[in-house]
Fold Cupin domain-containing protein.
Amino acid sequence: MSERCPADPEIVEDLPIPLAVAGHHQPAPFYLTADMFGGLPVQLAGGELSALVGKPVAAPHTHPVDELYLLVSPNKGGARIEVQLDGRRHELVSPAVMRIPAGSEHCFLTLEAEVGSYCFGVLLGDRL
C-alpha cells in the first residue's frame, strides 16, 4: 500500500486585496476573494472601525448576492453601527450579525467603535 502525501497548503499573505465595489467611496479591503483557492463561493471584506466613526465608507448600493454584516469588538458593546436597509434604519451593537438580502439597497455608518472593532461583509457568492 502506498503512503498518501498531504497536498501542499495554499497560502495568501498579501492581504487585504483592494477591490472596487459599486457604491463604495474607495476600493474595499478583501481578505477572501472569489478567485482564491481555485474559486470560492464566499468573499470577505471589511476592516477595523475605530478611525471610521461618523465617516461613511459607501453610498447606498446593492449586491447580486446575500451579504452578512459581522460586527465584532474586543468587549461586548464596544462597537455600534447604523445600517440603512431598503430605507429602514437598524442599529447593531457588537457582537452581532445581520443578513442583507441580495438586491437590497444598503450601507452602514459607524456610530461608535473601540480600537480593535471590526465590521466584515461576508458576500455569499462569487459576484460583487
In short: The mean pLDDT is 94. Residues 48 and 59 are 19 Å apart (CA to CA).
